[in-house]
User: What shape does this take?
Amino acid sequence: MAAAASAGSGLRSLLLLLFLPGLAAGPAGMLQPRDTPSRERRELGGLWSFRADLSPGRDAGFAQRWYRRPLRQSGPVIDMPVPASFNDITQDPSLENYIGWVWYEKEVLLPLRWLQGDPAPRLVLRFGSAHYYSIVWVNGVQVVEHEGGHLPFEADISSVVQGSPGTLCRITVALNNTLTPHTLPPGSIQYMTDKTRYPKNYFVQLISFDFFNYAGIHRPVVLYTTPAAYIDDISVTTTSSDNVAVVQYQVSVVGSTANSLSLSLRDREGKVVATGDGPVGELKVLSPNLWWPYLMHENPGYLYSLEVKMQAQVGRALLEDVYTLPVGIRTVHVTSTQFLINGRPFYFHGVNKHEDADIRGKGLDWPLIVKDFNLLRWLGANSFRTSHYPYAEEIMDLCDAYGIVVIDESPGVGIKLPESFGNKSLQHHLAVMEELIRRDKNRPSVVMWSVANEPASELPSAAHYFKTVIAHTKALDPSRPVTFVTNANYALDHGAPYVDVICVNSYFSWYHDPGHLEVIPLQLTAQFENWYKTYQKPIIQSEYGADSVPGLHSDPPLMFSEEYQVAMLREYHSVFDKKRKEYVIGELIWNFADFMTNQGIIRVLGNKKGIFTRQRQPKAAAFVLRDRYWKIANESSCLPPVITSHSLFL
Assistant: This one.
């Protein structure tokens, strides 16, 4: 990824901002904003003002304090849709590959009821995600900084807007997409100093992951209110046995000591099935409806509603806050050969995905999301991994509701350099896991955390690194297994001893022995047997696949044809069918759909390993995988054997 713009010492010094401690979000809760009787929310999607800082050091915005007045007053701006990546929106090739600071701005009129009262409501500005490093001002006052491109952050802006004249709220965001050896994902800046070959101050962003480094405000920006005293966080865990379920809960309150705190658990029809009071306790549910994965039960994705009500005295006012949390009752357990959900063996037959589409890049897009879930259910897929970063909360909501099982992965992809295993990177990785678990801890669809993808785990420093990250993750959430996804040799992997499930990626007859399908049975069988003999842990084939150019045909199969992709899948499947009777507990195809990458000699407008095109049209491999997944579902389901791809869907 190149940026033919001036860099030099100004950019070098400016990038140090990425390592300065800011007003980052603390250990407070991160409840998803919802409309309730005591809360209001407003999405700020649509057109924002936008400018890329093209100054020699990318620092004009800070030097000239663009945040102090409307952005249009300091120079030209263009319209930029939010949520969306900025890269593909314009016809400007320099913006497509831009590295550095960009600036967004939105002016919003606030309702008077949000600014008045004794006490006045608490007003929070929340970003679903912005890639990668964000600094946010409201009416010229800095309110928050955040490092990381895939998780939410927010700021209480009550004092800023309530102290400003009128109801106008001007939100300014400076966003930097530069990746360093200590970011997640990591990267590095390389300066091209040979003036006979490159323009002055030419630099490129180097990355070790195979997807495009889209940037922008990718997920919804929301203003929401709470009372001055409010429910800050809710944590739930569930167990079940002998037709009785227990929902253990913990509620934290901020702003005042609660006069009363009551909880009601309602079923899908709204009937109260259990009640409780106090900040810590448990709710017992008789004859519970368990949360089951798609195709594992005739009623998958069953969700209860946990309504939490708080009353608190603040001055002379008695305030009430109400929050409703979806709750799925399910258990997860791992043995040496099985992955159990609600005590029954679960086999992952699913996909890896990307948040990626034409024009909007990684921007949240409801039509695309719904289309993807329709395709997943058509395919007979019961699971996916959030490769290689946490996905939007809106996507996770549908996984909960539809019964799609999720391996929830951090943005720890491309950890290859020795310096990326040092303490600086480690501390950031621990903080990212805290943010991820804080966001997704209550989701029944999330059955396992993945802390990284294809790191250089053969390096000796990986042992301490992954031992620490995995132990920290388990301490934060003892209820779920933890893994990372490896492509290292089984005998050299220093992180594998610490995982609960072995997740291994391999591309036999593609990246290894390209074109030789006949090597797959021997090499794949040896892979499984070596890993299991060494660790005695269940194994998921977390990636496998081949590129295919849609409409390119060859018989006998040749690489990049649809026939070769199909032939490779069938060779892998024959081995899966033998080993899933033993200790292989899942298979996740790479990839669900074609996606954009950096330009390169092996990439023709992106990675073509999708079983669907980037526009979500099926290749031949999609039909092969669909037949297989429905067959597996019929073999393992407790439902009558008349299940077909039409009886539960369409």
